[in-house]
Amino acid sequence: MKIIISLIFCSALFFANESNAAFNDAVKNYQNGDYEEAYAEFKSLSEIGNKDAQFNLGMMYLDGLGTKKDMHKAFAWLKLSDEHKESSETQIIIEQLVESFSEEQSALSEGVYSEIYKTYSNSIIAKDLKPLFEKNQAEEFLAIPLKTSPAIYPIVASRKGIEGFTKVQFNLDRSGVPHNIKILGSHPRGIFDRSSILAIRNWKFKLNQENDQNYYTYKLIYQFNKSPNYKVKVSSEVINKLSELKEQAESGNAASQYLYARHASYLDEKVNPTEWYYQSAIQGIANSQYELGKNLLNGVGCEADKKKGLNWLTRSASANLGRAQLALYEYYKETQIENHENKRHFWIKKALESNDKTIALDLAKYMSAEDIFQPSEIIKLLKSINEEEILDVVTYYELLAMNYSKQGLTKEAYANQREANKIMKKFGKLPKKMRDSLTRYKELSKKS
Questions:
Q1: Residues 328, 330, 334, 337, Cα dihedral to 10°
Q2: Residue 236 reports pLDDT greater than 80
Q3: Range from 128-142, 175-189, 217-231 that averages highest in pLDDT
């Protein structure tokens, strides 16, 4: 019996979905004899409903590889991997196991299966993790902008002639003032995010008074262009590449599902990216888990569900994705519940340890507001950012000034604040807060 099982197991390891990056890592670890690593990876994927991983986890329990041999858990995970009895190979293995069990062992195995089923079956996974997707993506605009203000064109984008857009979502209460402004997506990624948020904060809307809702969720696309006839241009080469991505995504390729979810709008198709993020996320792609978690929290392409959103963000963060760790910090910071302080401190420390340069500036900003970090740590983080990749140079210099000042290095503080003010002046009136900061640092530097 064991020879037959081992052959089937190897077949599953070699020929299961090649698109699954995390699954492939587990397979490689198994092939290399790193059974404990393979076991841990299969178990993690099994707990988010990956059926191939559940099968292989059962086989590792059966052979005692990477974990203690346990026939009851082997039976349970193998049975769960084929809930609807669609795999004849799996059913043969299960039948062989049942034949080898005594009546007492069969009862114990069914008991273990029952417990695992209550947590990791398709129906439970759907309840805890699967979004309720929106099939109709059309937006009903119930508010009319009365007051708008233009966004400041980011310096990096202006220098390089970069054009693009942001997709923004925010809430409006009866007063028509935007709050809870969130960036749902942007192109190029991240460059225009802060400018969009700062501009929309000053907008004012007239609401549809015939509707009895207490608040509205409003979505828009904010374009940044150097010419009035700007349109996002997509070359035939890019369109062909995206068409290939679509084919690969539909065939189950997890990495392609993630990329297609991010870029499908360029094909001018009515695609719900959240559905593709989910398909990729259950195969262990941390980036997809992060995007899915954000969409669930914000109700993008699906019904908003805080519990599911946090579940996915936590899974992504546990894979050491700095963006997900910072997103969890932001969530626990915003909720301001007493017992969340430890959680937010835990996740911001993890975000720092992740060494994710894409979040370095935001991370430095949040670290500056916490009392658990030394100014020297924050300055070191800021200095690690490639200057050509800094999207918000004003904030960059202001943070340096603030943390140099905390160290008592007032001359450095003054120099960096002066640089921030100099850049800001190019784009209009200098805010009073920035003028006051420069004056304060100047006076302190004279005394030192």
A1: 40
A2: no
A3: 175-189
CA atoms within 13 A on the CB side of 400: 22
Place of tokens 């059974």: 35
pTM score, whole prediction: 0.66
- Tell me how far the alpha carbon of residue 409 is from its chain's centroid: 37
- Domain spans of the chain? 2-128, 143-224, 234-319
Q: How many angstroms separate the Cα of 274 from the Cα of each of 19, 45, 127, 137, 378? A: 19, 19, 16, 11, 35
CATH class of the domain whose range is 143-224? alpha beta
pLDDT in tens, 145-158: 777 777 777 776 77
Instruction: Give the list of residues 6+ apart from residue 350 with CB closer than 8 angstroms, or none.
Output: 317, 320, 325
pLDDT tens digits for 275-290?
999 999 988 899 999 9
Structurally, at CATH architecture level, domain 2-128 sits in: Alpha Horseshoe (1.25)
What is the distance of C-alpha 104 from the center of its chain? 46
